[in-house]
UniProtKB/TrEMBL annotation:
Superkingdom of this protein's organism: Bacteria
Protein's name according to its UniProt entry: Alginate lyase
Signal in keyword set: yes
Species this protein is from: Rarispira pelagica
Keywords associated with the record: Signal
Signal peptide span: 1-21
UniProt xrefs under PROSITE patterns: PROKAR_LIPOPROTEIN (PS51257)
Length: 261
């Protein structure tokens, strides 16, 4: 009898482990912008940065651009990580550019010919360090209002006219914001009034889009739907920290990125 129970228990355990172990290529129910579960999205890319070489400025699966102040760091060296030991640190030490971590959604090598997905989802974790909130840094080139972390979803290309969705963690208000208006218009960002975060904390952020609208889910609360800046689909995901003409000693961190389409 005991032997039988042991065999059944082991079988159940194996079933459970098998069900939990498969992620890449799996499908899951998706909530579309009407709030109902009607479609299915497939996980097409995920990374926790644990397999990347420490100190690398080009983690596996990302696009090599002209400037990338994005570095694989480790909690063993005192840096934050959401899962495991490693994450991506985004800084801005260039007076002519800013940090970027770009994923071409289809895994290709050209941002201008990326496959456009008219439905998809990106989920990630983000962290702003305490320096992002310091307003009196002695570095005169530093603009303390620009120590924000952006995620911009573009169509073909990564110019302002290619924007489809643009959100940011805004350091001076400690709120999540989304851009409204035309893709090339003024920097009009709108607060998610209740989407307040703290520095030195990991935030879970998910954006899900369809052919005309998108939702943002921030630390478990859903905001939207909002209109896309333009229709036609998303081809490139661009994490950015800082401002082109300025530098800062502040840092942001990103970990556990998942992309579905
Ligand atoms: Ca990690
Ligand atoms: Ca800069």
């Amino acid at each position: 009898m005991k032997h039988k129970i042991l065999i059944i228990s082991m079988a159940l355990l194996m079933f459970f482990l098998t069900a939990c172990s498969s992620t890449t290529g799996s499908s899951e129910a998706s909530t579309d912008t009407t709030g109902t579960t009607t479609s299915s999205l497939t996980l097409s890319f995920s990374t926790d940065f644990e397999s990347d070489t420490l100190g690398s400025t080009l983690p596996t699966g990302f696009y090599s651009g002209s400037f990338a102040d994005a570095t694989v760091v480790s909690s063993n060296d005192g840096y934050p990580a959401h899962g495991g030991a490693q994450s991506i640190q985004l800084g801005d030490t260039s007076a002519s550019s800013n940090s970027k971590l770009v994923r071409i959604l289809d895994g290709g090598s050209s941002t201008s010919t990326a496959t456009l997905y008219t439905a998809g989802r990106i989920k990630f974790y983000a962290y702003l360090d305490a320096e992002c909130g310091v307003q009196n840094n002695s570095n005169t080139a530093e603009d303390e209002t620009q120590e924000n972390l952006y995620l911009t979803l573009y169509n073909n290309g990564t110019s302002s006219g290619n924007r489809v969705i643009d959100i940011r963690l805004e350091a001076s208000t400690l709120k999540l914001q989304h851009r409204t208006g035309a893709p090339t218009g003024d920097l009009t960002y709108v607060d998610e009034t209740n989407a307040v975060f703290n520095l030195e904390n990991w935030n879970e952020i998910q954006i899900e889009w369809d052919d005309s609208q998108y939702y943002i889910t921030f630390n478990g609360t859903q905001y939207g739907p909002y209109d896309l800046l333009q229709t036609g689909g998303v081809g490139n995901a661009y994490f950015k920290f800082g401002q082109s003409g300025l530098v800062t000693t502040a840092k942001a961190y990103v970990d556990d990125i998942e992309i579905y389409n």
